[in-house]
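Treating backbone geometry as a discrete language has practical consequences that deserve illustration. Part of our work consisted of pairing the sequence of a single chain with a tokenised description of its backbone. What the numbers capture is local backbone geometry rather than side-chain detail. For completeness, the protein is quoted in full, as a sequence line and a line of structure tokens:
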Amino acid sequence: MTAVGGQAPRICYVLAVALGGTARHAAMLAVGCARAGLPVQVLGPPEVRPLLAADDAAAAPPSGPGAAGIGFAVVEIAGRPRPARDAAALLRLRTLLAATRPDVVHAHGLRAGAVTALALRPLPGRRRRAAARRRARPALVVTVHNAPPAGVPAAAVYRLLERMVARRADAVLCVSADLEARMRGLGVPEVGRAVVPAGRIGRGPASCGPASCGPASCGPASCGPAGRGQAAPGESHARRPWPGGEPGGGRPLVLAVGRLAPQKGFGTLLEAAASWQDRRPRPRVLIAGTGPLAARLGEQAADLGVDAEFGGWSDDVPALLADADVVVLPSQWEGQPLVLQEALAAGRPIVATDVGGVRALTGDDAAVLVAPGDPASLAAAVLRVLDDPGLAASLTAAAVARAAALPTEDDAVAAALALYTGLAGRPAADR
């Protein structure tokens, strides 16, 4: 794998977030590329470093092609506009990129992408010409992980960041078809689908992050169908005690996993659950995760008379999935949600909203898909699965089949390597 001059391309990753699916995905690519012999540098929040087993926090890059390990330096890019903090991050990022001289910079998220685009802009006048003589401009890849937010001010900022990325990026990867269409509409020269795997089969508990640590849910579904207490798809398993101490009592378990944030739509799930409180046995609702809406969702459940259990942080999503009779994904939007991939791998019956990249993962037969924000439709779908063993069995079989076709970490790294090599091999004038 060579770039210009017969050397492996130097890759630099830039992140603005330290937790969640975005950080884990970028770390997975960085580690995979380093193992493939590429010099890799990661710039981002300090919390990212443990995901990388990085060499040196002092920003020293690897010594050359094939150097062992991953260079790391702290760059704090704010999650929201913060003029002073953003200016400091921009200056630090510009300095670090000039020192590491990557062939390809891969930013994850629009915030990181926009700041990186500014950092790579040539300096004006004589300084610009001198800089151009010293080094060729690196290619810029940006992965868009999230859809526009609902609020008007936040949506306006999102559109501004989109335009900044579109003007500068050589390639944009998106986690769903709707985001691809947006970026193509802005004139990005190369738009593709990001390959986002859930995880590597057989990894141990230390590989698994919290269920609620970010925009996507926790770590690998495939810590193994037989590992850590999880039953294989279709295999019977003993029902564990209800997390709050209540006996199971034969009540079916409806499970949802994710960050307690507006995008996840857990309020819709609670409204749906309110409609089945008179059923016997009454379905139990477990929402595993933490986040800014924790208190509000608890109050909503109490107001609706729903005895939902909020399980908080969990590092054992496979065990939760093993106990679930139905896994519900009530999100307002999703790209390639890791928890959905985990549920498919676990062979659980799934009810999900038909948003973003969900249908691309489940197809038409591995989940019952409903419109977002519609508690009546969500409740009807959940009860349909619980009341129809044939439907549940069909969903389980389809889920296992879909999971077998999901991309692996090796697939994701191979796709990234092909993109980086192609971009690094182009003349700078063509980028």
